[in-house]
Amino acid sequence: MALASLLILLTAAGYAVLCAVKPFAPCRKCSGTGARTRRRAVTLCRRCHGHRSRLRIGRRLLNNSRTIHAAAGTRPQTTDRKATPWQ
Hints:
The chain is an alpha+beta fold. It has 2 helices and 4 strands, in the order H-E-E-E-E-H. It is flat and about 75 Å long.
């Protein structure tokens, strides 16, 4: 049981490091080419919009958590006491 927990923890840590070092991965839909072949026409990939890469899920979660943390940390503080004239 402890070995399985350690393996899961190491896998999650490895994925977190991968997301920090290399946040983009090749698009799965177009295999990183940026173009899709439909019948005889070649169009841009709808998933990556021709950029050939996508943001990893772990990096997206990290970016969202940073945004939420920054928004919560800058919230104005409300006070219930009266302001004195010298403050």
